[in-house]
Design goal:
Blueprint: H1 2-24, H2 38-64
Length: 65
């Protein structure tokens, strides 16, 4: 009887872990919803990348002189 109770508790624990992992595991990152402010973040990243590219060009021109 004790073995049955232990097995039932183990199955319950595995079920709970599997249910929670679905919300917080690697599958949570594959959802198609985007967080609020994502478009603004993309604009800021594009501006930062552009500024970095310009700084690289300027630095390359300064070393040529």
């Amino acid at each position: 009887m004790r073995a049955r109770a232990t097995a039932a508790a183990a199955l319950l624990a595995v079920g709970l872990l599997a249910g929670c992992a679905r919300e917080h595991g690697s599958t949570a990152t594959t959802t198609t919803t985007t967080p609020s402010g994502y478009a603004e973040m993309q604009k800021k990243m594009a501006a930062a990348e552009s500024a970095l590219a310009q700084a690289d060009k300027d630095a390359a021109q300064d070393t040529d002189r």
